[in-house]
Specification:
By secondary structure, the protein is α+β, with helices and mostly antiparallel strands. The longest helix is centred in the C-terminal third of the chain and has 61 residues. It has 6 domains: 128 residues, D-Maltodextrin-Binding Protein, domain 2, CATH 3.40.190; 93 residues, Periplasmic binding protein-like II (D-Maltodextrin-Binding Protein, domain 2), CATH 3.40.190.10; 101 residues, 2-Layer Sandwich (Beta-Lactamase), CATH 3.30.450; 126 residues, 2-Layer Sandwich (Beta-Lactamase); 86 residues; 127 residues, 2-Layer Sandwich (Heat Shock Protein 90), CATH 3.30.565. Helix 18 runs antiparallel to helix 19. The chain has 22 helices and 28 strands. Strands 10-9-11-8-12 form a 5-stranded mixed beta sheet, sandwiched between helices. It is found in: Cytoplasm. Its main location: cytoplasm.
Amino acid sequence: MMRLRCLLFIGCLCWPFMANAEQASVPAAVRLAPAQQQWLDQHRSLRVGLVLQAPFAQFDRRLQQLSGVNVELMNWLGRALDLDLTWRNFPDQAALEHALAGGEIDLAPGLTQTPASLRRWLFSDPYMRVPQLIVGPRNGSMAVDLERLAENERVAVRMPSSLADYLRATYSNLNLQGVPAERQALQLLLSEQVRYAVLDEAQLSRLSRENEFSDLVVVGDIGLPQLLRVGSRRDWPILADIIEVGLQAIPAKDLEQLHNRWLQPRYPRLSESPGFWQNLALLFAALFFSCVFIVIWQRRQQQQLELNLLAARENIAKRLAREEALRLSQFSLDQSTVGILWVHWDSHVRYANRAVENMLGYTSGALNDRPLIDIEPNLHMDRWLDLWKRARASDEAAQRFETQCLRADGSLVPVDVSLSFLRFRDAEYLVVFINDVTERRRALAALRESEARLKGIAGNVPGLVFRLERNPAIGDLEFPYISEGSEALVGYSPIELQHPDMGLRNLVHSEDRADYHRVQDQALATDQDWSWQGRIVTRQGEQRWADIKASTRNLRDGRVVWDGVVWDISQSKRAELELARSQEQLRELSAHLESVREEEKARIAREVHDELGQMLTVLKLETSMCELAYAGLDPGLNERLGSMKRLIAQLFQLVRDVATALRPPILDAGIASAIEWQARRFEARTQIPCLVEVPDNLPPLSDAKATSLFRILQEALTNVMRHAHAHTVQINLGLDGAMLCLTISDDGVGFVQSDQRPTSFGLVGMRERVLMLGGSMRLDSEPGEGTTLSVRIPLNNDRS
C-alpha cells in the first residue's frame, strides 16, 4: 500500500512536465507542369546526399535510422512528389562535393549559397533561416549591441569560420577569442573568461539541452542569418524547378514546427534538473526517517529483549573472525613472494614459508630446525648473537644488509636481508625477510654500463651534448650534464659551464643574444622543443657559428628536461653566406642585363619606328607620285604601282608591330594605361573578358619598375592563354601602404603546385624580376579552382 502511494505521488509531480508527441502532417499532392511530371515519372529514384552534422542530419547506430531537420524535409518532399529516395551520408561538405563531381548524388538539402558553390549546384529558394545568436549569462544584460562593447569585453567565436570573418570586418571594436568548436565557446562563457559567445541557432539548440549550459540565454542577434537551400545537379535544371515547386507547397506552419522542433534552443526541464530530484530525494528521505523513528519507538521493548541475543552472536562472530584472520595470515605468509624465516635465539629455523624454500631450492619443511649457518656460511654464532642483540634493542643500523645465501645445490644467490624482533606466546624470535636481488643487481650493472656507453658516445660526438633541467618546486634551471666536447668546441670545461653564472647564454655573441633569449625563453615557457642558429664566442675570443637543438621530456617526478646538442656549423654557415652573397651578385648582374636589354629594345624600337617609318613614308610618296605621273601611260604599270602601295602599307603595320613588341609606346603614358591597353589586346586576341581595376591617383613609377610590371603582366596573360582554359580574367593594381600590388586571377582549370615543372622558365623569370625590384611573388592554384598570381613591390627602393 505504501509503495502504491509513493508511485501515485511521483506521478502527480511528474505529470505537468510530460510533453505530448507531435503528429507529422500528411503532405498534399503537388501539382507539376506536364513536362515536369513526365520527367519525374522517368526519374523516381533520386540519390540524396547528407552531411552528418547535428541537428541537421544525424544517424542513430542503435536504431539504424536517420533523423534531423534536413531528413524530415526530404521525407516530406519524397512523400509529396512520390519519390524513391536513396540516402548517402558524408562526414563533411568537401566529401559531399567530391561525390557530386563523381555523379554519385542528385540533390542535397541544407546547403548555403556561395560564389564557389554556384559553379557546382543549382540552388532553390531558402526554405529555412538559421540566425547567428549572441549568448550570455542568464543574470546579465538581456539585450546586447556589439558596437557598444568595450575592448576589454571578450567575445568567443569559432575560428576559422565565415562568422568570425564577418565579425572582424563589421565590428572592429570587438575583442574576439578564437576557439576550435562552439562547445569551447560556451565553456569559456561559463568560466567567465569571455563576456559573450556568438554561434548559430542550430549549434545552440544542440548544446542548450545539456545541463551544463542551462544558465545561458540568448541576448541578441548579429543580423547575419544562414539561409538553408536545397542544391541539385547543374545538368538537371528541371529537377531544380520540381524541387522549388515542392518547397513552395510546404505549409509555412509545418516549416515553423520543423524549425521549432530541431533548431529552437531548449533548456533542461524542471524534471531534468538535479535540484528537483535532490529535493524529491530529501522529501522521501524525511518520510523514510519518520517511519523508521515510529517503528523504533513502537519496538523499543522488543529490541531491548534482543540485545542479549545480539551480544552473543557478536562474540561468536568475533571468534570466527579471529580464526579466519589467523588462517588468512598463515596463508599470506605461505604465499608471500618474500622469503620469511622465524629464527630462535639459538639460530635454528622454527618456520620457513614457501617463497624462501623455493628461493634456496629446498623441499617443503626441509629448512625447519636447520641452523642459519647452513644458509649463510659467514654467519657464525658470535655474529648471530650480535645481530640478535641489535634487533632486540631496535638498532635500525643492524636490521638491514646484503649478503649471499647458499642454495641446496651449493650455488650462491645474492639477497637483501631485513631483521625484525618478534615476541609470540612467551617466546622470542627474529623474523628474517629475504629478497632475491639477482635481477636488481643485473639491472644496476646494465644501468651503469649504459651510462658509461652514453658518456663514451657523448664524449666522441663532434659537438657539445647537454641536458637542461627545471625543477618545478623552485623553478630554477641547471645543467646536470655537459659532455667533454665542450673543451674542443668553446674552450670551457663541463664544470665551468655548469656553474649557475655561466651556462650557454654567456657563450652567445652579444649581437645574437636577444634572439637566443627569445627562442629559449619561449621554449621554456611552453615546455616545447627549441632550435636556434647563431654565433658563439669561445674562451679564446674566436667567433663560431653554432646550431643548438634541444628536445623536451617530462619525467615522472614532475621535472622537465631538455636534451640537446650544440654543433659547430661555422664551415657550412660560411659557405651559405658566400652562396647568398653570390646569388645577390648574380641577381644584381641579371637586373643590370635586364635593364640594358630593355634600354636596347627601346632604342631599337625608336630607330625602327623613326628611321624605317620615315623611309617608308618617303617611299609611299614616291610611289604615289609615279602613279599620278605615269599610271595613265601603261595599264600594267598602274597595277604594279597599286601592288607596291599595298606592300608598303603592310610593311608600315609590320614596323609598328615590331616597335610595339620591343617596347609599347603606351608605357610612356603610365603603368595604369599600359595595363588597360594590354588587357584590351588580350581580349581582342583570345575573346576572353578581362576586368581591370587600377587606382585613379597612382604615384609615378620609375621606368624599370613600370617595364618589369608590364613584362610580368604579359607573361601571366600568355600563361592564361596557353594553359588556363579560363572564361574570365581579373587584373587588380592597388596600393597597400608603401607597396604596389598587382594581382592577376583567372577561373581556369588550375594546377597542383607540387606538379609544377622545374623548367617553367616563365614563372622563374617573373620571380626573378620581382626579386630584382626587392618585392615578393605568390602563386595560388588548385585543380578546378583557377589560378591567382600576386606581385608586391615597394614604391621606393634603391634597386629601381
